[in-house]
Amino acid sequence: MSRAALRVTLLLLAALGRPGAGSEHDEEHGGQDNPSSREKGPGHSHWSYEDREHWGVDYPDCAGTVQSPINIDTAKTIFSPQLRPIQLSGYSLPANEKLKLRNNGHTVLLELPESLAITGGYAQQYRAVQLHLHWGSPSGPGSEHTVNGHRFAAEIHVVHYNTKYDSFKEAMVHPDGLAVLGAFLEVGPRENPYYQEILEHLYKIQREGEEVLVPGFNIAGLLPANLKLYFHYNGSLTTPPCYQTVKWTVFNQTMLLSHDQMSMLVMSLRNDDSKPLQNNYRMIQDLHRRRVLSSFQTTLFSVKQLPPGSDSSATTEGQSSSSFHAGDVLAVLFGVLFAITALAFLLYIYKHRSQNARLDSPTKSKVIYTAATTENTA
Ligand SMILES: *[C@@H]1O[C@H](CO)[C@@H](O)[C@H](O)[C@H]1NC(C)=O
Ligand SMILES: *[C@@H]1O[C@H](CO)[C@@H](O)[C@H](O)[C@H]1NC(C)=O
Ligand SMILES: [Zn+2]
């Protein structure tokens, strides 16, 4: 059975190869410990991951219906060709530009200069403010988003705000205020030199509130090389105050870190209780009526997946077997759409023909007249 099955097997083997793995207890487990990124919330509120089921009491938005993170079910995403590649500008920073790297008790956060921006892929321009990471523990992964029920080792979030607002703080309360770029981190065979620029400093900021200045580097190296393939949906900050003002981009390509680097990320920091800062991710949130768009075709070419009984709610590695089916339905749908469009087009042509038959000569002479005028005034 196909590449999918093979891949699952490999992942399982990989998981078993790690200490304490094998079970997906991170759901209960992740509830403990602290923080993740407060994506820079107001003030210095006290919330923790132990408490994450009750965030809604102090922060009403956390109980809303447009929350993040979510599980991305690739069989249900909607292919949207108008989602253009994400374009980054100003992301390459010289080493003499120093950036603040901080342990805020919830995550490690790198402050970014305002020169970094998203200049393509979104309808508006967004300016970067900070990036941070979410991770698990030695015994389990800790990405926030999941794909077909699969949780990745870790996740990076690069937080931006709409340039039509004066500041991040102002933007964060508006529906079109924020854009976060997210990418998954996995263990690979090699050391990742871009992530090393952050990881090698973590030992200096083990305690909450500690910070260090790090030399600038190419921040884009922390994100996938392929910025064309991504998922897009409307969601929220994944930490209090959970404002529902984030237009999310989650890349399909993952980032690879060495095993040692991943350990460094998971083991280096402590939270405000001086306990290991681990499992700083939030549980996935209900989609409610939201749609998740994809910039690429996820289903048409996918091999049929695992066995029976999969119901596409996908809580494990095994995914929905409905992708092929979805592909067929899509094909028919597009066929019908095409037919309607063609018909409309013919009608349009037909109508204009009869109109133009009357207007033809006047229109033409008008064009010539305009051109001549332009020349005279130039
Ligand atoms: C996100 O919300 C905006 C504003 O309501 C809407 O126009 C857009 O279609 C939504 N995006 C998705 C992917 O649903
Ligand atoms: C990327 O897209 C493929 C095709 O739909 C899917 O099988 C895979 O799980 C996706 N991975 C991520 C990280 O989005
Ligand atoms: Zn985050």
UniProtKB/TrEMBL annotation:
<feature type="region of interest" description="Disordered">
    <location>
        <begin position="18"/>
        <end position="49"/>
    </location>
</feature>
<keyword id="KW-0325">Glycoprotein</keyword>
<dbReference type="GO" id="GO:0002009">
    <property type="term" value="P:morphogenesis of an epithelium"/>
</dbReference>
<protein>
    <recommendedName>
        <fullName>Carbonic anhydrase</fullName>
        <ecNumber>4.2.1.1</ecNumber>
    </recommendedName>
</protein>
<dbReference type="InterPro" id="IPR036398">
    <property type="entry name" value="CA_dom_sf"/>
</dbReference>
<dbReference type="InterPro" id="IPR001148">
    <property type="entry name" value="CA_dom"/>
</dbReference>
<feature type="transmembrane region" description="Helical">
    <location>
        <begin position="329"/>
        <end position="350"/>
    </location>
</feature>
<feature type="compositionally biased region" description="Basic and acidic residues">
    <location>
        <begin position="23"/>
        <end position="49"/>
    </location>
</feature>
<dbReference type="GO" id="GO:0008270">
    <property type="term" value="F:zinc ion binding"/>
</dbReference>
<comment type="function">
    <text>Reversible hydration of carbon dioxide.</text>
</comment>
<dbReference type="GO" id="GO:0140677">
    <property type="term" value="F:molecular function activator activity"/>
</dbReference>
<keyword id="KW-0456">Lyase</keyword>
<keyword id="KW-0812">Transmembrane</keyword>
<feature type="signal peptide">
    <location>
        <begin position="1"/>
        <end position="22"/>
    </location>
</feature>
<keyword id="KW-0862">Zinc</keyword>
<keyword id="KW-0472">Membrane</keyword>
<dbReference type="GO" id="GO:0046903">
    <property type="term" value="P:secretion"/>
</dbReference>
<keyword id="KW-0732">Signal</keyword>
<comment type="similarity">
    <text>Belongs to the alpha-carbonic anhydrase family.</text>
</comment>
<dbReference type="Pfam" id="PF00194">
    <property type="entry name" value="Carb_anhydrase"/>
</dbReference>
<keyword id="KW-0479">Metal-binding</keyword>
<dbReference type="GO" id="GO:0005886">
    <property type="term" value="C:plasma membrane"/>
</dbReference>
<dbReference type="InterPro" id="IPR018338">
    <property type="entry name" value="Carbonic_anhydrase_a-class_CS"/>
</dbReference>
<dbReference type="InterPro" id="IPR023561">
    <property type="entry name" value="Carbonic_anhydrase_a-class"/>
</dbReference>
<feature type="domain" description="Alpha-carbonic anhydrase">
    <location>
        <begin position="45"/>
        <end position="296"/>
    </location>
</feature>
<keyword id="KW-1133">Transmembrane helix</keyword>
<dbReference type="GO" id="GO:0004089">
    <property type="term" value="F:carbonate dehydratase activity"/>
</dbReference>
